[in-house]
TrEMBL record:
Protein name, as recorded: 2-dehydropantoate 2-reductase
Enzyme nomenclature, EC number: 1.1.1.169
Residues in Ketopantoate reductase N-terminal domain copies: 7-155
Role played: Catalyzes the NADPH-dependent reduction of ketopantoate into pantoic acid.
Keyword Transmembrane helix in record: no
Pfam families: ApbA (PF02558), ApbA_C (PF08546)
GO BP terms in the entry: pantothenate biosynthetic process
GO MF annotation: an example: 2-dehydropantoate 2-reductase activity
Naturally occurring in which organism (per UniProt): Usitatibacter rugosus
Length: 310
């Protein structure tokens, strides 16, 4: 009998907790790295997913010390972007020659950080679509039915490790795909997310009114156009009019949809703007592509980026 896939989830909040729970439910050998009250609750009461497809795992393997988990087949990175450096330092004991490390964090800079810290052969690319948050310790709440994971080798090959992860995801009911062009998938989400997060957080409204008002709709379109221009300058295979495609996609989502960064702003949490619109500015500067709207979004949110506690 083949051994179940051993998966370490580094950061078991909205994203990692949700997809890790589904993987465990499907039979994968999942080990959650968590901390604080969330870790205590997971140790005493397991992990619960609330929402359209609820799950309760009464017992889970959860720790704050990745070294106790040992070598893993897959490490899924699910910490907020500001915690990336410390998380990458902590996952070293999990990584052997064949381990796949996949960041499902938002943005595109995440994979540069991974490449700086680990051998390229250990790194696969990933994108997560879901709207989840820790509701209370040990409990992840999902809003709406969307859930999708895309991952793949950066050279486009269908590797055995990619196939095994796909199988484990499908067994857990995850809408998963092994992508032949994961870099483009990561940028496609980036275009949409920078548009959604930049507009909802600065205008402080969900997407419905923003897409209905001609002035804010044009703003959203132009913010996404900048991301497309920067991606194309970096050699990403995005059609020139891809922002118009994403605007059509925006018209299909619920009018109440907003970005996690807007939620974070309303709760006084730290913001990922440095890696979202800020990442567009940084990557635009590298190629001489102007990004005035994303620069404005970063500047407008600068005083909020550290959260209320800052
Ligand atoms: N949630 C979502 O719907 C989606 C999120 N994403 C992206 O996924 C990433 C994670 O977001 P999300 O899951 O929402 O964030 P959360 O804050 O819900 O989860 C991250 C968790 O990781 C924990 N953590 C951080 N560092 C460590 C560490 N060193 N050891 C143990 N635990 C640690 C945090 O603990 P603490 O709270 O103590 O800091 C927190 O519980 C972000 O880049 C986000 O943009 C992408 C798609 C959808
Ligand atoms: C748009 C969404 C919910 C998609 O997963 C997201 O990633 C975010 O708001 O951070």
């Amino acid at each position: 009998m083949t051994q179940p896939l051993k998966i370490a989830v580094m950061g078991s909040g909205g994203l990692g907790g949700y997809f890790g729970a589904r993987l465990a439910n499907g039979g994968a050998d999942v080990h959650f790295v968590a901390r604080g009250a969330h870790l205590q609750a997971m140790r005493s009461d397991g992990l619960r997913i609330e929402g359209p497809e609820p799950i309760h795992l009464p017992r889970v393997s959860a720790t704050d010390d990745p070294a106790t988990i040992g070598l893993s087949d897959v490490v899924m990175l699910g910490v907020k972007l500001w915690d990336t450096d410390s998380a990458l330092a902590q996952i070293r004991p999990l990584v052997g020659p064949d381990t796949a490390i996949i960041s499902f964090q938002n943005g595109v800079l995440k994979d540069q950080y991974l490449r700086a810290a680990f051998d390229a052969k250990n790194i696969m690319g990933g994108v997560g679509y879901v709207a989840t948050a820790i509701d209370r310790p040990g409990v992840i709440k999902q809003t709406g039915p969307m859930q999708r994971l895309l991952f793949g080798e950066f050279d486009g090959s269908r590797s055995p490790r990619g196939e095994r992860l796909l199988e484990a995801c499908l067994a857990g009911g995850i809408k998963a795909e092994l992508s032949g062009d994961i870099r483009r998938e990561i940028w496609q989400k980036y275009v949409f997310l920078v548009g959604l997060s930049g507009t909802t957080a600065t205008i402080r409204k969900p997407i419905g009114p923003i897409r209905e008002n001609p002035q804010t709709r044009a703003f959203l379109h132009d913010v996404m156009r900048e991301v497309v221009a920067v991606g194309r300058a970096h050699g990403v295979d995005l059609p020139e009019d891809f922002a118009a495609n994403r605007l059509e996609f925006v018209d299909t989502v619920s009018k109440d949809m907003t970005a996690s960064m807007h939620h974070d702003l309303e709760r006084g949490n730290r913001l990922e703007v440095r890696w979202l619109s800020g990442g567009v500015v940084e990557l635009g500067l590298e190629k001489g592509v102007p990004t005035p709207l994303n620069r404005a979004i970063s500047d407008i949110l600068a005083l909020h980026a550290g959260g209320k506690a800052a």
